[in-house]
Write a structure and sequence with these properties.
The complex is a heterodimer of chains A (394) and B (211). With 394 residues, chain A is of the alpha/beta class. Helices cover 44% and strands 18% of the residues of chain A. In chain A, strands 3-2-1-6-7-8-9 form a seven-stranded parallel β-sheet, sandwiched between helices. Chain A has a six-stranded parallel β-sheet with strand order 12-11-10-13-14-15, with helices on both faces. Chain A has a two-stranded antiparallel sheet with strand order 4-5. Chain B has a domain at 52-88 and 105-203. Classes of the chains: A alpha/beta (394), B mainly alpha (211). At the A-B interface, strand 8, helix 14 and helix 15 of A face helix 1 and helix 5 of B.
Chain lengths: 394, 211
Amino acid sequence: MRVGIVCPYSLDVPGGVQFHVRDLAEHLIAAGHHVSVLAPADDDTPVPAYVEAAGRAVPVKYNGSVARVSFGPVSNARVRRWLTDGDFDVVHIHEPITPSLSLLALWNATEPIVATFHTANLRSRAMQAAYPVVRPALEKISARIAVSEDARRTLVDHLGGDAVVIPNGVYVDAFASAPVREQWTGTPDAPTLAFLGRIDEPRKGLHVLCAAVPALLEKWPGLRVLVAGRGDRDDALEQLGPALRAVEFLGAVTDEEKASLLRSVDVYVAPHTGGESFGIVLVEAMSAGTCVVASRLGAFRRVLDDGSLGLLFPTGDAAALVDAIDSVLADPARRKSLAEAGHAAVRRYDWSVVAQDILAVYETVLTPAGSEPLEDRNSVVEARLRRLISRWRA
Amino acid sequence: MTGEDWLTVALAVLLFVGVVAWYLASLASRLDRLHHRVESAGAALDNQLLRRAATSRVLAGSGLLDPASSLLLAGAASEAVAVGEADTLPDDGGPPPDAAEPRDGTLNRAREEFESDLSQALRATLTADVVEDVSADPYGRDLLADLGAACWRATLARRFYNDAVSTARRLRGKRLVRWTRLAGRARWPRTFEMDDEPPAGLPRNLSPSPS
């Protein structure tokens, strides 16, 4: 199958949508499909062979965070050329309502279109202003995918219609078999916690964790908190005060380091305060076999099956976070059973499963001429039946 | 009014007529596209439902299930195949060859009931234990793989079909579209409502037997 995938955000900036696009493309290529990814990237930025650079990526503030996107007549012309040259059977557009390549591709494509909606926090005011403009283009989408029940609900509330839920994919085994690093491994006296995400992005909730650290240190003097992620650390430092000695800032980490970190620590903490539609990091931590403590956000509740696969605490409540972390640190058996339950449950997010589901969506929207003719199938069915009946009679 | 004023008025009227015409043309092309989407989504749904029913019927006749399960499944599957075959889509959007009941959508209303019955029969017969037993047999495993794939694809196709229908209905509900009769004689599309819950023990991506 010839698949064209459109990513609205620049691939050199890490992010959920970008990782999803990259992994999906690589998985489909490994399965023998022809895949081309169109993404914002300057012409001199090195990109993988399957990526087509759509030109100048501009940082803009959109939907509450800064993203690097491409738009304008030059990008539009490149999108058109990519579509013509690609001769795709299906075009898979991610985050179609972004002022970037996705919308341009949606506008220009004549192929069957599949669209994945990643976000659960569409700002309704911006959306309402944009509807009259984008609605005709959105009507071209043959199949809508939402990455979580929350994303689907947002979509249905804002745009009507319906979507299927197919979660983001994770390479479960890559996390399950990541090498453990001694410097990040906890001991009974000095347990370790991990935090992942931009440290100056309030939605990621580092401030909630920081507020909990002093109280945790009283109970666990040897506790170490490992914070991985980019961003300005001044706010965090100010808030920590004397508790600073327990916190280690690792800065930006590679995929391998992230997997090792999640696998090494005793507890992964997700103190996010909102804006999460899925919670892929939770799935990654569970894949690594690590116990998860997370805010009681709708998306996290669903990933953790309402608390049976990890602990939930009221969003933003540092005191409750202290209690939750303390309870799993004090009870290694419980920690282990939660981690094991989580690890068993994440199989359904593995790329082997998710990519099959996405391929099934592609097949459903392909022009029916491409599928097996029904007459043939029915005659095969009849032939099998007749053979079986004759076997019974014999 | 002077001649210049008249010219201004005439130009304004011309511009207005032009804008209205352009808007109507764009509405018409959106409608056309949506009708096409409803049709192809309906065809995909029809395809997957028939595939599901046909595979169920073969499974019922395979001797891999106990006689009572076979009979139950064969009954539901045969009904679904029969009603599905009678429900072949007209090619040109014209009336179907033998329309016993007035058609209001691309898929027959009676079919919802028979397909739901089949879903229930599948759930009743294909429990987790049975799925395990049947997939021990290579032929049975192939059938189950096909059935699981068809169940999942039918769910997908129905979701996409209903999505297309509701989008089309929204546009057709616009006053301007109704007054100008832009939709022509195209049928008022109807969602397809059925119980499509697959058997809990049947994986949707079961790999076929190696052969």
